[in-house]
Every structure is written in C-alpha cells, then in structure tokens.
Design a protein that fits this description.
This protein is of the alpha/beta class. It has 13 helices and 14 strands.
C-alpha cells in the first residue's frame, strides 16, 4: 500500500478543485492507496465555500473533508493540483504535478514567478517525477513550453453518471416550462467563462445568424463573475456594436443569461432541457461541460482539432472546421496556440442540429450513454492509480 499525499483545493467549484474532488472520491476507495490531503491556498482571495461552493452532496463533501492531513509522515508519492503551479519538492519524494493549459503556459503560470525567474522545467519530469495533463492538446502546449514529452502522462477527466444522466420526459417538460421555454423552441446552451479562448463571441454571432433562418431559437449562457470576476455583458455589448444588424431586439430577447452558482443537480437540469450544447472554443484544456452534456443525452457542437477530439465521437457531436492560429508577442515569439473556427461552418453546424440532425441519429441516447460510461471518473482514476503505483 502506497501513501499518497494530494495537495490541492477542496470545497469550491473552480475546475481544478472539481477535478481534485472527483479524483479524491475515487482514490479514497482504492485499497492500494492510503490517502492524505493538504489544502493549497486558493488562487483568488475572495473564493470561499459559501459563495463558491463545489455543489457536492453533504455525504460526498463529508468524505472529501474526512481525508486527513499527512502529519509528519513522509509520503511515497505526492500529487499536486493547483494554480499557480507548485514547485517540485526537494526532499526526493516522487511528485506527480497536474498541469492543464488552454493556449499555453508562461513563467507566470508557476508559483513564485518574478522578474528574471526561469522555471526549472527539467525538475518536473526528472527521475520518477511526472506531469499529468488531461488531453493531448494540453500536452502539446506543455511541450511547446519546453517540458519533456516523455515525462508527460495524458490522463483524461471523467463524468459522474450518478449525477449527470438524461432527464425523464416529465422532468424535461417541467423544467423547460419553469425556464419559460416553449415546446417548439430549439435551445442551445453554453456554460463557458466569457474569455476570448472560449469563443463566446463566435457563438453569439453564429446564433444570431442561425436565428435569421429560424425564429424559434433560444440561447442560454452562464455568467461566471462570482468565480472568475469576468462578466458576460462586455462580450455581448461588443458583438452588438460590431454587428448591429444581426443583434435585433428579437435576437437579444432570445438570449437568457443564468446568474449565480449552480450545483451539479441544477447543471444536469440545464443540460437536459436544452437541445444542443454548443462550444466553438478557440482553446480548451479539456472542456468538461461538453462531456457532462453528453452524459445527459444532449448532442454537442465543438471545434475540431482541439481538446475535445480526445473524447467526442461523430455519433454525438458535430465538429466545426477550424484553422490553427498563433498568439505572437511584440518580438515575434509564439506564446500561445489556438484554433480559429470557420464562422460559416459554425452556422451550418448549428443549422444541422435544428434541421433534424437528432432525427438522423436514432440511437443518440445509446451513443451518449456508451461514451459517458467509457469516460467515467472511475475509469480515469484507474489510469491515475496505475501511474501512482508504478515503480519505474
């Protein structure tokens, strides 16, 4: 039995904290491991368990919180998950460092960043140390930063089907009515933060263009200002100013913004009442809402060539054509990479869903369930456990 010390975040709903907590719920059940946990400082001072609650059930949170601190005992392996990224230990204990990036890393992505400081890239993969990342897209961005590809393990995230599963016909009808959605309306959903890489501006423009063809379309967005301090309003204002003819009063009235935090049960209802989850992102590290939507039986529109290529299938997704793009600094150095979605292809993908794509996939629910089962948190942690217990 190996003593695994996990150093990360508990109790809040940031994506890295959610990954940590889902993994803890699986790791604590593994007889090959004896688990302890040390809480890392939150990335933002305003985060707290009340305003940014993770949404796990009281029973699950009790299990997560019951994982004891390590005390003075030396662990066999340390798994570190936080941002900024923690340095490598200097006591010889094997360290697995979780890193995920959307566009790419910089020196400021690491703890202790400052003028003249250079990250010791080799230390994170030296000896038996390894970097853990959830997608090949993220791995490639880590290699761009200078990490040794041989020392990076791709271990995906997962979905918990006890939480995310399809709504019954009655649940769907009731909750659509509660949201004021008519039976004849076709509804898109996106839960991404209003940052450039999430492609919210592209989705808004694509939705407005699709609505010129179909007046029964609706779009639901999630405001994430409570967690990230980033509001969706400036993005909407910007696209309206750039495309005033597209964003008529009818289009703007068809967009619903959900404020505040939602727990997993409430997220399931959102995934289940809509007709399509649309995520024309420029760069993602994984894009967990896409997997959760699929687990709820909802088809998706995603960017091709990006992180979601690792887990979506043609049976449940339309992948939108995109081209590679580079972010370049003033000296011509590339510091980030992304995919730029073809705007016309995005509109056609949205229209394909509206025009009967679901009807052309009679076994859509079966395909969604099969994909979700293959990407459960249990299966993801199987791979993590194998890495933890490996002696090479």
């Amino acid at each position: 039995m190996k003593h695994l010390l996990v150093e990360g975040w508990r109790g809040v709903n940031h994506s890295i904290a959610l990954v940590n907590q889902h993994q803890l719920l699986e790791l604590v059940r593994r007889p090959s491991l004896r688990l302890s946990h040390r809480d890392r400082p939150f990335a933002m001072a305003h985060w707290n368990r009340q305003a940014n609650a993770s949404g796990f059930s009281p029973e699950d949170m009790a299990c997560i919180d019951a994982i004891a601190a390590p005390g003075d005992e030396r662990p066999d392996v340390v798994l570190s998950l936080s941002s900024p990224i923690a340095p490598v230990r200097d006591d010889g204990v094997r360290q697995l460092t979780f890193m995920v990036t959307e566009l790419g890393l910089g020196e400021k992505s690491f703890e202790g960043a400052g003028p003249g400081r250079v990250v010791d890239r080799a230390a994170y993969t030296a000896g038996r140390n390894r970097i853990v990342t959830p997608t090949h897209w993220s791995r490639d961005r880590l290699v761009d930063f200078g990490f040794d590809a041989a020392g990076i393990e791709v271990i995906p995230h997962g979905v918990r089907m006890a939480t995310f599963h399809p709504l019954s016909r009655e649940e769907r009808a009731t909750n659509r009515a509660n949201l004021g959605l008519r039976n004849d309306e076709f509804v898109f959903l996106n839960l991404g933060v209003a940052t450039w890489n999430k492609g919210l501006d592209l989705l808004l423009i694509g939705f407005a263009r699709a609505r010129q063809r179909h007046a029964h379309l609706r779009l639901i967005l999630k405001d994430q200002r409570d967690l990230y301090g980033v509001s969706i309003e400036p993005v909407i204002k910007d696209v309206v100013q750039r495309h005033p003819a597209l964003f008529t009063e009818g289009v703007l009235n068809a967009i619903m913004v959900v404020p505040g935090n939602l727990n997993p049960a409430e997220l399931r209802l959102l995934y289940g009442v809509v007709d399509c989850y649309a995520s024309p992102y420029r760069a993602e590290g994984f894009n967990l809402p896409v997997l959760e939507a699929i687990a709820c039986g909802t088809p998706v529109v995603v960017t091709d060539g990006g992180a979601t290529d690792d887990f979506v299938s043609d049976e449940v997704a339309i992948r939108v054509a995109s081209r590679a793009g580079d972010q370049v600094d003033g000296e011509g150095h590339v510091f980030g990479r992304y995919r730029e979605v073809d705007e016309e292809a995005l509109v056609q993908a949205l229209l394909s869903h509206i025009d009967g794509w679901r009807g052309a996939r009679p076994r859509l629910q079966d395909h969604c369930m099969d994909l979700a089962q293959r990407h459960s948190w249990a299966r993801a942690v199987d791979k993590l456990e194998t890495l933890i217990c490996r002696d090479d």
